[in-house]
Amino acid sequence: xxxxxxxxxxxxxxxxxxxxxxxxxxxQYDGKGITGNVKCGDQMMMLxxxxxxxxxxxxCRWRTYGCASAIASTSVLSEMIKGMTLDEAYHLTPxxxxxxxxxxxxxxxxxxxxxxxxxxxxxxxYYRRNDxxxxxxxxxxxxxxxxxxxxxxEIENAVLEGARTFIELQEMTKLGTVCGQCKDEATQLLGxxxxxxxxxxKD
Length: 203
Known about the structure:
Layout: H1 8-15, E1 31-37, E2 42-51, E3 56-65, H2 68-80, H3 86-90, H4 94-101, H5 112-129, E4 143-145, E5 150-151, H6 152-160, H7 166-173, H8 183-198
Antiparallel strand pairs: 1-2, 2-3, 4-5
Helix pairs in contact: 1-2, 2-4, 2-5, 4-5, 6-8
């Protein structure tokens, strides 16, 4: 194959994905997270098993309707989180996933968001099932995109990481890729955060 733009690590995880969910009925999980919407072609499900004495993730499985980058990103993420404490895994970011892969093309960075969000949703589900709601971090964030569960804080983070147009915002967060009803509000916030963080200071 020519013109392969990805690292060997990405290629390996895409061609030989780890911890794929093949038998959902017989995989006993403690937490389940789903993000995305199959209607737009990108959906991710993550199941985690927890060692409750050590409070660590002992195993996981995942399944996606996503692209090569989403598959590779979640595959490497599924290896990274085994043995990790719930708190450590809860605070992993797409940047950590990209680092695990070596790199991803800039226009594919947003694909690493799916696995990250599904994992956080699975841990949140575990906390809810086990009466540990005090550990769920809501961050006082307001959801702007109801379809992809993207908050105002995530929009601000995307701006800080380089998003300057609505398309770039979509690529980094997947916001507005389903029904699109959030576009006006997201565009307004995009402008406000650019002004907040990058407008030149007045004399």
